[in-house]
């Protein structure tokens, strides 16, 4: 007779593991460790550019705090690392310098890569909605698109999108122009 363990790892246990091994990114998904590769330049470039745009706007208007790739607890068995997260000034007390974030960000941004499309469009979409994340953006560097969703009645509703070289304004930043052309990896390096 063999015994199979069905015990799920908790967020607390996962966070005790410490830093990720080199070259991989670990998250806790429904009590199981999920491993994904480190980002490639096509993913990293728009991440840094969008972060720069958001940080400049948020700091200039004292709106709150923008962070990236930070352990964020979404339940007893879920610890995710959204590419970019934003907390309003009213909710930034949830951020402690040396701890995982225990509470939903006001905005989560995921930069889609070919290996993460299904996870970002289905799994994280549902997890962030259940976790109470008010806004979720998905940026697709291959398709050169961005989609913005707002949580309403426990489900995400599309509230904005852009493509190519458009300049967009997306909630929760109604006064911020985001020039999409600046986000895509430069053609002369492809």
Q: Which regions contain 5 or more consecutive residues with pLDDT less than 50?
A: none
Rg result: 17 Å
User: Helical percent range?
Assistant: 10-25%
How widely separated are the two ends?
Answer: 55 Å
Output the structural class.
alpha+beta
Cα shape:
globular
N-to-C order of helices and strands: HEEHEEEEEEHEEEEE
Q: Could you give a short account of the major beta sheet?
A: 6 strands, mixed
Strand order of the largest sheet: 3-6-8-9-10-11
* Average of the residue pLDDT scores: 86
Q: How many E strands?
A: 13
Number of helices: 3
Residue share in β-strands:
25-35%
Multimer state: single chain
Give the topology.
Layout: H1 11-15, E1 24-29, E2 32-37, H2 41-60, E3 64-68, E4 72-75, E5 78-80, E6 84-88, E7 101-102, E8 107-111, H3 117-131, E9 135-140, E10 145-152, E11 155-163, E12 167-168, E13 178-179
Parallel strand pairs: 4-7, 8-9
Antiparallel strand pairs: 1-2, 3-6, 4-5, 6-8, 9-10, 10-11, 12-13
């Amino acid at each position: 007779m063999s015994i199979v363990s069905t015990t799920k790892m908790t967020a607390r246990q996962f966070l005790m593991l410490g830093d990720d091994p080199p070259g991989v990114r670990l998250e806790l998904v429904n009590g199981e460790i999920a491993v994904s590769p480190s980002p490639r330049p096509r993913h990293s470039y728009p991440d840094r550019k969008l972060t720069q745009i958001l940080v400049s706007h948020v700091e200039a208007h004292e709106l709150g705090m923008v962070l990236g790739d930070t352990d964020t607890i979404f339940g007893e068995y879920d610890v995710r690392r959204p590419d970019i997260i934003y907390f309003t000034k009213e909710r930034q007390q949830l951020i402690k310098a040396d701890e995982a974030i225990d509470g939903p960000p006001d905005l989560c941004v995921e930069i889609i890569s070919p290996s993460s499309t299904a996870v970002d469009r289905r799994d994280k979409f549902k997890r962030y909605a259940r976790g109470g994340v008010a806004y979720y953006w998905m940026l697709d560097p291959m398709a050169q698109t961005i989609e913005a969703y707002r949580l309403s009645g426990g489900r995400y509703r599309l509230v904005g999108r852009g493509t190519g070289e458009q300049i967009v304004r997306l909630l929760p930043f109604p006064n911020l122009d985001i020039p999409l052309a600046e986000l895509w990896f430069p053609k002369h390096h492809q």
